[in-house]
Write a structure and sequence with these properties.
homotetramer; mainly beta; 15 strands; 3% helix; globular
Chain lengths: 241, 241, 241, 241
């Protein structure tokens, strides 16, 4: 409490609180590292490319870790129905994820049965993929919903057969050693350039029945759902935050 | 407390909590309205275009509401130094903002004196615009910082003279009738496609000296700063959330 | 940008950030107003006394606003079963509430049927009152639960017939003009001097069936439940925060 | 997605969403453990008594861990000026803390120099102890302030020489392995039965100069400050949350 020194320095009366030197509120450390952005939707320099149109090397079967069995053709990877979900071999926490998807041009089925797939963050929290172009279902189950938890602000769907984009900003949940949820997961989703989820608080695993619940976990894979429809993906990249 | 009815309906034992019918967690209302997304960075169907390359009609001088005096040429609007900040005539609360900017190709000055401008949300909260390509300054004052509050996660700057993009998702602060801050403003910023601010909590007006403080306010304009450097803007559109 | 003045004043190099004058972080306004505390659980000087043992003047029937029909005797107010809930005539937002309750010394019934009543904040959010001394029920429905939303951290119940205390610190929800929940209600509950709810986030109205939902509302009464059991209350006071 | 089973069970139309069985929202596990509350301000059955009026066994010098040198007399422990702070030998995370204090009956000094001491949570976050009865100082430095961070809602001080109480409900900060603050510390303080801090978010270590900053840490002691004034303490107990 060496106040004397300061009183000498500070002949300026206290009342003029606005007289702060600007240097006091400058923060020089750390210096943010440089990242070279991509052109348009191309991956930035620090992204991990998960699918560049040619290979499923970054993916494996979510059933048993065996080789990914989806179809790679024309720069896209497409669900081979009944082969099961795919997941990344790598595991992630907080991420920025860019992924493009296309529901079948030839419409078949309705509601949840039409162009259904999904992007599971950390293998547990689903951003729904569905053909929601003129296809009514429950709002918290349509495209860009956090499945059965948060309906999208708007429906920014493109027609069946068109490529669509998701830009997902995800902060993983944090658990205390005893399993308590210290901070829930949150997610922001931009669908075709339109904001549809803003810092939505995820309430637990996205489940078909019952209420969401958290189970403590660490990093997890990005998982793409085989829901029986030949949905395609391309230009998939992720950045660790 | 008409429990009897349910006991009859529910022969399923309570213990099997997983036996929730899936319909219980379906939400059908409201039905999100359709928005037609734009191609690439073009405005979606529900956007308000603030600058399409031809006219400053949506803008006025932030000094006195007089006509905007910046220069429109080659599809860009450029700071005419010393004419003062521009602000939108319209006022906004929660928004998605797309804006593109370019710092001068011809480098002059250094630190805060090089390619300095800024995007003020609600006229108060600055997302810094600066030429931060090989131009060190305090981290919480470089491009994509929330000025003197939050440094960007990374430096995704493009070189001087290149067009750059900001996609900004902003939730306005909420004040109680007595002026208390009920919810601070938050902002997510994507710079050239790279996430740089994720749900950053704004601590009050962004000021050059002293600590940020909130003053209660309602909707406010988007304001672009004249910091004496001929920074350009283009393709500016906003969506109300 | 009048930096020159400060550089003269600040011969101290910027690097020694610790050299902040202590006056900069002193806040003199406002000066908190004086409150004379009570002795023990007696009301402080700024409290509104809702029941001092003698009169139901502060209360009315929650059914229709008619005169309160509960029984006043021996310094307590006691549920007259089937006369309905009581509510305060006055309405409140954020409050500190002290209330004492007693479940019947003569035990009758079990589970939710034993010594059941409740304190409804703003007429909507129930802090459960129940005889939970050796009386198992669902955890999120026992004494000091936020009914069907938050179970208490511990069971600090006193035996039937003993007076018990609740000290409740409640922050009302805030709604945007369009009804959106800007800030959920939160509540801290101290039961018999033991912390049982710490800043629990209320998820909406506490309901017997279905999930809690928020309906926008303004200030509301404190309501005490007639659940058919002769539960008593005394020493009820509230402070507006 | 075995929807068929449920459709058979659920002849009830979906529209009647209110027809949830009440059992679905009952939570039976865990069963909160019993705690026997104390009478008045006496410790509950699960409290750790830190000072019962007779011994400093739970305390040590905060300088070097040597024996506590404060004075025990008349059921109180009193600062022996210039012997330094005391800290608990035990370390804590989230706690409920009851502590009683008394500033000298014989007033000497003014402002921060009068009856100054402090309760440091985890050895870092100070709930100010000061004689603030007719003794003006900066509001965020008076009794019951979170020192230089949060001024108390009201001034519930008792006169010099009177015993006063603090009931403190504290949630420790949580840090990620990389040191990031996942959740800031929060504190609720009841001063002489009057709420003065409600879920105040602590911004970092409470410091005399400069802005608060977090340094990652684990459990920490409760520390009582020797600020040169013979402030006394009694009836100190803590519960782990």
């Amino acid at each position: 409490m060496k106040r004397i020194v300061y009183l000498l320095l500070f002949v300026v009366p206290v009342a003029t609180a606005q007289e702060w030197p600007p240097e006091l509120t400058e923060v020089w450390d750390p210096e943010p590292r440089m990242v070279t952005p991509g052109d348009g939707t191309a991956p930035p320099s620090d992204a991990i490319v998960l699918f560049d149109g040619t290979s499923l090397d970054a993916w494996e079967s979510a059933r048993d870790g065996s080789a990914a069995k989806w179809i790679v053709a024309d720069g896209a990877m497409t669900v081979a129905p009944r082969t099961g979900d795919l997941r990344t071999k790598e595991r992630f926490g907080d991420i920025q994820l860019h992924i493009e998807f296309r529901t079948p041009a030839e419409v078949s089925g309705e509601g949840q049965g039409r162009g259904n797939s999904g992007v599971f963050l950390q293998g547990r929290y689903e951003v729904q993929v569905l053909d929601s172009y003129g296809n009514r279902t429950y709002s918290n189950g349509q495209v860009a919903s956090i499945y059965k938890q948060h309906l999208p602000m708007v429906n920014a769907a493109r027609p069946p057969g068109a490529w669509q984009t998701y830009d997902i900003f995800y902060r993983a949940p944090v658990f205390a050693p005893d399993g308590e949820v210290v901070r829930k997961a949150t997610v922001t989703v931009v669908h075709n350039g339109v904001l549809v989820q803003l810092d939505a608080e995820i309430q637990g695993g996205t489940t078909y029945t019952g209420l969401p619940k958290y189970e403590p976990h660490g990093d997890g894979p990005i998982e793409l759902q085989d829901h029986g429809n030949p949905v395609s993906y391309r230009n998939v990249w992720v950045r660790r935050l």
